[in-house]
Every structure is written in structure tokens, then in C-alpha cells.
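hey m, so remember when u said the C-alpha cells were messed up on ur end? i reran from scratch. heres the input so u can diff it against urs
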Amino acid sequence: MSGKVLHILSQRPGKTGSGVTLDALVRQAGTAGWHQKALVGVPVSETTPRVGELPAADIETVTFRAGFGPAGEDLPFPVPGMSDVMPYPSSVWSHLSPGDLAAYRTVWSHRIGEVVRGFQPDIIQTNHIWLMSSLVPDAAPGVPIVAACHATGLRQMELTPHLRDEVIAGCRRIDRFSVLRNDHRDTLAATLQVDPGCIAVTRAGYRDELFHPLPAGDGPSLGHVLFVGKYSAAKGLPWLLDAVERLAPDHPGLRLHIAGGGAGTEAEALRARMEDLVPLVTMHGQLDQPALADLMRRCAVCVLPSFYEGVPLVLVEAAACGCRLVSTDLPGVREQIAPGLDPVIRLVELPRLENVDQPVAADLPRFTADLTSALADALDRPPESPPDLDAFTWESVFRRTESIWRELGG
């Protein structure tokens, strides 16, 4: 008999990699017979967030300011994102005032305690090694806690150092942790000063019922390239646009499809540049997973020119849909993804980086040239059959996660 698990995510579900992970684990746990609730952070205007197939009654929220509408939210500022550039309007952690942070702690602690008292979970599965997760041990005393590290919390410790000690002090009291890859386990153990034996590598997964190739004979559109991500320099988007402009004269059928979004000055500048590149570039906005899978099946190549990622699941999803892949040589790609995606993937050497994800300007001409060459090679190669991706299914990831829950008595 399976027990009760409370999932907690401090930002909007379904909008980022951690939200996709939450959605998938809830679906898998439901199939396995677990009774579940979710507590998530959303704009006050988002009255019915979706988390897997949970009914609305099993989804609790902490609400945040949404635009300039009437008040009524729990917290009077937009949802803080785990990255400083999010695909929706958000607060930046390093910009929050002491008063904002005090209110954040108070509201989340109250709501976690309230939901725990009403639901009486056997296990709490929280997301991100960051401020909300650091509050869980005190807000839910006596309940075993598992924290999923998506790497962005470790990055925020560098971007927002005045919260680092508080986060470490709270999160090191969590019972067990899951990470995406081996080096994250080592980094997390050193950061929190916890036993590496309490950290499991669960990897990332994809929904194989959604991401699959077109039927035989219905190949993708030759010359169509897909980028999935935020409008951000850290995602490598400016240099991808440079590369596509260089390739266009020799590839008359070339089209770059952009699935994602962004807010803020940087995102708006990139949006304006992409609008100037129409019809070479098509912006699709933020897509749900079924729509993204459909777009992937229509593209021959998926490119990830990012300077920082955990384990970018989008590459696995695109490979499952039949895309050839071009990616920067990120640790998570090299360690967890590339070995299972040969020969459909080509890696591009990263430029030297400052402050985690800011490229050294002197390296950018070489980086742009290498990215252009890799894209040209991928566009000119014949299609490959999708590789064996059984190890990347959410069923496999869930089995690894569920084993932690059961070890803790769930």
C-alpha cells in the first residue's frame, strides 16, 4: 500500500524544468497508487494551476502579485524565479528587500504547516535547494523530507550570497536529496556538509508517450532548426541568431523556430531582434508539452547553445522526436546525455565563463564560428533513427525516486 506524499514547488508549475519534473512525478506516483497533494507558487491571477492529473482540490497555492491588478495575493511581488531571467514576469532574488524576504518566509512557513496539518503526509518532496526548502524542516517537524536539487539553487548561492548561510543551515537538516548528475552530488555534499550517501542520482526523464517521431515516411522539414528556452544571453540566444544569419545564404530553406519567452530589458531586446529576422525566425511563445512535441517532430535539428544547465531534458525530448542535436559541451550533457545520444548529437566547446554563465568576450568569435559549423553539419547530415532512450523515461526516474520515499517509510 502506497502512502501520502506532499510535493512543494516555490515557482509556477509547468513553466520550467523543475515544473515539468513535478508534473511527471505526480503522474507516475498517481499510477503507482500514491495519495498526493501539491503546494505551488503562482500569480494570483492563475486560479487553477495544473499539476499532473491532480484535481483542483489537491493543489494548494501561495499567490504572488500579478501585474497591476487589484490586490488579494499572499505576497505583494511577482513569483521569484530560480533563474534571474524566467519565461514569465518574475522577481529576482537579489533584488528582493529585507521586508519582501521576511514576508516570503512567513507566508511559506504558514502555508506549509497548514497543508501538512490537514493532509498528514508520510513524505514531503520539495524542489530546489533554496529558501523555501530551507523552511520545510521547521514548518513540518517529524515528516521525512526529500529535496530535489535542480542545480539552480547552487547557482543562486553565488548570485545572492547574503542568503547562502540561511539556505545551507535549513537545507542541511533535510533527510535525503536527489540530484540530476554525479558532479551535482559531490557539489551538494560539499556545500551542505552532508554525507554523500544521503544523495541519490535520479537523473532526468521525458514523457515517451508524447515525444516520439513521426510515422515512417513523414519526415521533418529539412532546414528547420528549433531552440527551446528563455530569451536570454545565458542561453546563448544572441550567438545562435548570429550563426543562423551566417548560414542563411547557403541554406535557402533554413528556418529557426523559437519556443520560449522572457521578460525584462534583455528579453525585449532579443524579441525585437528576432522580429527583424522574420521569416528566417519564427517565435512560437511558451508551448505546453504536447505542442512542443508537435513542433519538434517538424524540425530536423534542435540546438542548445546555453552556457549553464543542469541536465537539459529538451535534448532527450528532441532526440525522441527524431531531431539531430547540437549542444554546448555542458557537464550535464557530456556526462548524462551525450553517451546515450550518439551519433545524433554534436557538442560545441564552451567559451570561457565568468560568474557561472557570462561568456568572456574574447572567446565569442570562436564560439560563434564553432556553433555555425556544428549547425551546418547537422543540417547537411541525413536523418538518424532515434536512439534507445529507455533509461531516460519518467518511469525509470520515478522508480529511483520512489525507492527513496520507501526507504524513509513512505
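this time it looks ok to me. The CA atoms of residues 81 and 183 lie 24 Å apart. if urs says something different then somethings off w ur setup not the seq
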